[in-house]
Amino acid sequence: MSTTPNVTITREPTGNVVAEGGDELAVTLLKRAGFVIETTPLSFWYRLPWDLGKERENQMASHATQMLTAVGYQVDLAPGLDVTRFTTPSDPKGIRVYGQQILLLTDQLNGAETYAAAAELAEHVLDPNDGVLVRLSEFFEAAAAQANATDTASGWDLSHVFENAAATIGDLGTELQDASDRIRALGPPQKRGWQEAVATYYAAAPDRRAEATTASVPDEPSATPPIPLKPGRTR
Question: Mean pLDDT for the chain?
Fold first, then answer.
């Protein structure tokens, strides 16, 4: 099976954003995304209009890619045109797309404004059926099978390493299976009505009348002082 992409979208040295490849349906989608036809006596291709500016061209090229991939086309989009590609200093070309998705999820978790929203994000990782942890465990199980297939001592050893990793992640998923519910439970209680708030205030407030009554009564001596004895003889 050929790995050649159905459609290629690039920026030429001249600055033109051009698309090549595909079939009649792909051409229809490219037109809908804003590409126009460019022809010569021997060939034709599609390009974006020249007066859009790079930012808008990148947006349109990325949108065309999303449209094409949504219906099954393989699209080779130049990295410089992809506005959806997330980059880091250690991955300036945005190649590690799966790690980037987790990084974006982490950013969303950091920005969550409620515990309910944070719990929903956590479930992307913790869901026992489709979460990141269970899929990562399956990944290491597949890696163990691949290593074991070499039928060599080093392959068997590596297979055990991957199997241990899969088991560790599986145990972690079990340990955290109720973590998202616990995050959700951290949310603030329901806001009280004003009647409840007033009642609670007066129930907790000190009794000013009792304090005033206590302050108006003079202090009494705690005991009668002893009468001193006169000097004299004793039996």
Answer: 83
What is d(CA 46, CA 54) in angstroms, rounded to the nearest whole number? 17
Distances from the Cα of 69 to the Cα of 21, 46, 58, 127, angstroms: 14, 17, 16, 27
Residues in the chain: 235
pLDDT of residue 1: 43
Quick one: average pLDDT of 3-16?
A: 84
Q: How far apart are CA 99 and CA 124, in angstroms?
A: 14
* Residues sharing a CB contact under 8 Å with residue 58, sequence separation 6 or more, in sequence order: 80, 81, 82, 83
How does residue 235 score in pLDDT terms, banded at 50, 70 and 90? very low
Instruction: Tell the residue number behind the tokens 């479930």, with chain if given.
Output: 123
- Alpha carbon separation from 198 to 120, 192, 210, 211, 230 (Å, rounded): 35, 10, 20, 21, 65
Closest CA to 107 of 94, 119, 121: 121
**Is residue 70 within 8 Å of residue 76, measured between CB atoms?**
no
